[in-house]
User: Which sequence fits this backbone?
């Protein structure tokens, strides 16, 4: 088919496309960027909730753009309308908002390179495909579904590559008259790439994460436009990344096998090729095996899970940062006063193979996050969480504000702040003794020991308890009390001569701790006693006597 015939065919297939590719090149001019500024994009499909893999991708895009003072934009890739779900787009925006991953440009935020929803850009794609037909790089393909199924079956039996290429591309050389006849006959068609590639040739490409990649050249006549005129991902993302001037495409490495198709499209269309960075999949240990994190099997794959259980958004982002760069965690532990955004992330510190998603590690990072928060901050954040997920506790927090802040502030100022909270729901669990109503309901059920304590000894101690002293004086007083009542002043003394003592000072402290908190472990005991005050301590002694003895 000569050029004139191809022009006639293009006008026949796209009678309503009157704009040219030059029009769009002018409409979406190059961005005015400095040398190191990145333009990245998150391109989710509205086919369900945002999962952890997608969130990690958005986090990467955001981090690299932000640290380079570049642009991070959100593009909704909804060309597969059959798989799109109701409110899917709103769900994507809501999930990103929840994690404070805010795009600089999007359909909501605006921007000069929109629309940022692919289904609204169909005319753009068709304009470029029309141009491809004129230049001999695309053609209408009329192969029916049942014929495609037969071709696939034949290829599977022969154990050869599946797809339309070579001898199977039966429509790539149809004459203009043959095409007209099929169109007049109302035969359905797709538009396919007329690939100039040779499978025997090898292409080399430098990936920002994986380094040098070698792939066979693409010879597949892939679908560019579906029967309804909408594009495939292959075509749409290439045109959009060009017109939106994406500098770095950061995406999952499941797309590596398609890279030769995408590079070929960039070359055929005459576009500058962006840099690609293919990230390793997020994996999980499952009964000794390692598999990809599944949004069907794993509750932690759903990003709403973290809000529901009360893991702070910031802690999740810190964990994502440890996945993103292998040297981040050490930096974070050594820079307690800094935000993760002050760390310089690089592609060369990203995993090449799978990245194990470790909930235990996330919990540890979350504990570190809480350990660096003030009692007042933890109180306020827990209050906000409880208002949404545990309203009864929210009301108790409001009623006991001053005490709760004091309890949450215990052991916060030292070199080793305590790490007993990994999520907001832990506050209710770990500090239930801080609120009388909760403590009384527990009835010492959180005490998991069998020991019965000498309540008369503790009542005797209450007669000399002085809460107006400092911690050191208090402990000296309780040691003196221990000695007078037949207890060793230290565990070491007791260990050396157990027959001489009833126990040691630690046993008395343990008894007091269990009586006032209902557990054998707690933050600094004297601080707890000071906040409770003598009257409340006395009531708990009475409660212990009633329930445990």
Assistant:
């Amino acid at each position: 088919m000569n050029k004139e015939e191809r022009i006639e065919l293009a006008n026949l297939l796209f009678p309503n496309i009157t704009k040219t590719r030059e029009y769009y090149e002018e409409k979406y001019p190059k961005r005015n960027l400095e040398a190191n500024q990145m333009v990245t994009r998150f391109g989710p499909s509205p086919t369900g909730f945002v999962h952890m893999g997608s969130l990690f991708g958005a986090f990467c895009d955001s981090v690299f753009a932000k640290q380079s003072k570049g642009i991070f934009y959100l593009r909704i890739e909804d060309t597969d309308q059959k798989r799109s779900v109701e409110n899917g787009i709103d769900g994507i925006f809501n999930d990103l908002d929840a994690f404070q991953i805010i795009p600089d440009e999007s359909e909501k935020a605006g921007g000069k390179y929109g629309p940022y929803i692919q289904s609204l850009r169909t005319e753009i794609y068709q304009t470029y495909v029309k141009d491809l037909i004129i230049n001999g790089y695309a053609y209408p393909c009329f192969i029916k579904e049942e014929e495609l199924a037969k071709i696939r079956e034949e290829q599977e039996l022969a154990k050869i590559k599946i797809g339309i290429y070579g001898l199977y591309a039966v429509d790539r050389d149809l004459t203009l008259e043959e095409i007209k006849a099929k169109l007049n006959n109302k035969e359905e068609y797709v538009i396919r790439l007329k690939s100039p590639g040779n499978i025997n040739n090898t292409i080399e490409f430098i990936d920002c994460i994986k380094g040098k990649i070698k792939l066979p050249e693409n010879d597949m006549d892939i679908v560019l436009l579906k029967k309804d005129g909408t594009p495939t991902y292959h075509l749409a993302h290439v045109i959009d990344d060009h017109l939106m001037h994406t500098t770095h495409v950061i995406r999952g490495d499941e797309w590596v096998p398609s890279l030769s198709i995408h590079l070929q499209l960039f070359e055929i269309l005459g576009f500058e090729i962006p840099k690609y960075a293919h990230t390793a999949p997020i994996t999980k240990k499952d009964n000794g095996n390692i598999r990809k994190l599944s949004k069907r099997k794993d509750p932690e794959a759903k990003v709403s899970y973290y809000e529901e259980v009360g893991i702070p958004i910031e802690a999740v982002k810190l964990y994502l940062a440890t996945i993103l760069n292998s040297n981040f965690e050490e930096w974070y532990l050594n820079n307690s006063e800094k935000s993760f955004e002050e760390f310089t992330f690089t592609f060369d510190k990203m995993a090449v193979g799978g990245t194990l998603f470790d909930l235990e590690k996330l919990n540890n990072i979350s504990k570190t996050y809480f350990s660096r928060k003030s009692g007042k901050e933890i109180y306020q954040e827990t209050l906000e969480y409880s208002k949404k997920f545990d309203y009864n506790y929210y009301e108790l927090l409001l009623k006991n504000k001053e005490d709760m802040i004091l309890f949450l502030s215990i052991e916060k100022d030292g070199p080793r702040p305590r790490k007993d909270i990994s999520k907001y729901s832990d506050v209710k669990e770990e500090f239930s003794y801080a609120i009388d109503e909760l403590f009384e309901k527990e009835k010492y059920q959180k005490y998991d020991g069998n020991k019965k304590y000498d309540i008369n000894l503790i009542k005797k101690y209450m007669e000399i308890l002085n809460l107006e002293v400092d911690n050191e004086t208090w402990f000296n007083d309780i040691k003196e009390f221990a000695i007078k009542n037949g207890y060793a002043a230290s565990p070491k003394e007791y260990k050396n001569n157990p027959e001489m003592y009833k126990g040691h000072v630690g046993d008395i402290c343990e008894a007091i701790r269990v009586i006032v908190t209902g557990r054998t472990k707690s933050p600094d005991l004297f601080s707890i006693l000071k906040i409770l005050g003598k009257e409340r301590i006395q009531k708990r002694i009475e409660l212990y006597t009633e329930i445990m003895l």
